[in-house]
Amino acid sequence: MKLPRISSRLVKIIWMANLGLGLILGLAAGSLWLNNASGHPVFASAPEHTPTPLIQWTPGPFFRPSATPASHNTVEDTNTSGPYGPYIIGTSFSGRPIVVYRFGTGARERLIVAGIHGGNEWNTVVLAYQLIDYLSANPDTVPADKTLYILPLLNPDGAARAHDRTGRVNDRGVDLNRNWPYRWAAEWDREGCWNYLPTSAGEYAGSEPETQTLMAFIEKHNFDALISYHSAALGIFAGGVPTLPESDRLARALEKVSPYSYPPMDTGCNYTGNLADWASSVHGIAAVDIELRNHRDSDFEENLRVLKTFLNWEP
Ligand SMILES: [Zn+2]
Predict the structure, then answer these.
(1) What is the mean pLDDT of residues 122-139?
(2) Mean pLDDT of the 14-23 span
(3) For residue range 180-231, what is the model confidence (pLDDT) as tens digits?
(4) pTM for this structure?
(5) Number of folded domains in the chain?
(6) Ligand 1 centroid vs 256 CA: distance in angstroms?
(7) 103, part of any domain
(8) Ligand 1 center from residue 230 Cα (angstroms)
(9) CATH number of the domain that 104 lies in?
(10) Domain-located, residue 61
(11) Cα of 144 to ligand 1 centre, how many Å?
(12) What's the 277 CA to ligand 1 centre distance in angstroms?
């Protein structure tokens, strides 16, 4: 697949920025991590249920997701028509900006979130920027009655740390998709769940600045549908416990145009405190988690079809 020119340049800049930052933070991490018997890194202060951060980072240079940082804004300009952004809606634990892009001006709002698992699922961030580039070049993709928001990277600290499994959590060692205030649990059975490294659900539900930022953003808006991108390979998850009927219908519609299976693979994991369940069960938003096929490819062509179906879908 040939990327648009802006996209490849942008992605390269992001990679370079991250490589540099990752190197610095990686060196810092080296002094904070211990090695367990199997040689896998573990967080140095990893006792569970502790209110203290699992890892404490010194705030580093801002991660800049754009080649044109001057265009960053702290407030959304609601008078601007057409593509708009990036604008900052909050900051991560270590002070990196969390940005959003907006397309269209219709009354009905939809949201795409990527990178909630940071560097561990880096390809979802690449996909989000490819969709942003596509929509910038093809703004008519968004129907007249819709406004689409894309938040390409909810966990910039994790993405800056590393593009592997050590980049999954935020700078306090929290899995941001376990921190939402619906079915939140401090601990869960790790069997069948992601368990490569120690992770935390946070001190309490909604404890993390990244979670708080997106919660406030969602509560300020009136979204009727949401996609949260992950990787890899499990399929499409419909939000809500019990599953919201609208989430189920959205998942079925997206399954038809994508290679991702619905229902998803059942590994027996209990996904406590996740974004999609919170959005559906607390706010009645049709929400799905989509898992890309692997940790490497962005599946752009497949998700362009997903995007168009998502934008034209009716609850
Ligand atoms: Zn994930």
Answers:
(1) 94
(2) 42
(3) 999 999 999 999 999 999 999 999 999 999 999 999 999 999 999 999 999 9
(4) 0.79
(5) 1
(6) 22
(7) yes
(8) 4
(9) 3.40.630.10
(10) no
(11) 32
(12) 14
